[in-house]
Amino acid sequence: MNAIEVNGLRKEFKAYSSRSGLSGAFRDLFTRNYKIVPAVNDISFNVKQGEMVGYIGENGAGKSTTIKMLTGILTPTTGGIIVNGMNPHKERERFVQTIGVVFGQRSQLWWDIAVQESFRLLKKVYKVSDAHYNEHMDHVIKTLDIEPLLDKPVRKLSLGQRMRCELAAALIHNPPLLFLDEPTIGLDVLVKLKIREFLKEINEKYNTTILLTTHDLTDIEALCERVIMLDEGNIIYDGALKSLKEKWGEGKEISFEFLEKADLQHLEALTNDLEAKWELDEKDQIFTAVTGDDEEAVSQIIARTVAAYKVRDVKINEPSTEEIIRNIYEKGMA
Known about the structure:
The chain has 334 residues and is of the alpha/beta class. It contains 12 helices and 13 strands. The protein has a 6-stranded mixed sheet with strand order 5-6-7-3-8-9, with helices on both faces. The protein has a 4-stranded antiparallel sheet with strand order 11-12-10-13, with helices on one face. Strands 2-1-4 form a 3-stranded antiparallel sheet. A hairpin with a 2-residue loop joins strand 8 (226-231) and strand 9. The longest helix is centred in the middle third of the chain and has 18 residues, at 189-206. The radius of gyration is 26 Å and the shape is globular. The model has no long low-confidence stretch (mean pLDDT 88).
């Protein structure tokens, strides 16, 4: 069963421009020049119930616009959306009972009242029974470690504390679908780890579907097996993160730190038949051989180098997800 079905989704905005000079400003009072700018350009995808999917792209790619259409905040220009079996715009009241939303830059908590009072208000909004609230939220509060924060006004919380409370607030009605738009932006490593572990837990326990947009690709690697990549409003990749790495994460870097003085030209001569390109970090005296994915070639580079020099340390590095995706945006998918 699909939690999200998107077919030919498009969103256009009018971009107004001002005429130059005094006469131009006067004319702008009566008529405005504008052009139509597509933010999301005829995209289609499905998300199965229980999936955790990373929705990624550069700034302005159309990620947040898509999330706003999927949650019913924006109306599409054209195209069809079915979320949890409903049209988000036509069945608004019933629809919002089935989703949770966390926007990293916006709060759903009341700024000047205690966190637990915000929770109680949201409990009434979502018509959650006392029994269901107590059973579910006791677990959420304990897992996110926010019990010491419940009596504090939201304005007195740090960013990390507030984001944990925001996540708890989005789950008060235990929705089957959770939209997360930059949920870990600006957070320290420990808070990020706590939020990631919690998201894994609710996905496993409740089969909660999660659509995650973020610039922190370590979030994607930790949580999502599938990614949808957006560029200028178009989907340029939709598939397994593992396949993305295998297809475009070509090459390995073998870094050597030697116990004796090494010569770059000698290293190049040692491996001239192995298609290895050597680089030297003069500051740290790290010699790096950049090569392909051939395991035999990697083995030969290491064997020949170790036979010629005394080695203090050797490391084999593969391109990170961040490097792969950056290269795709810079060079294209070809």
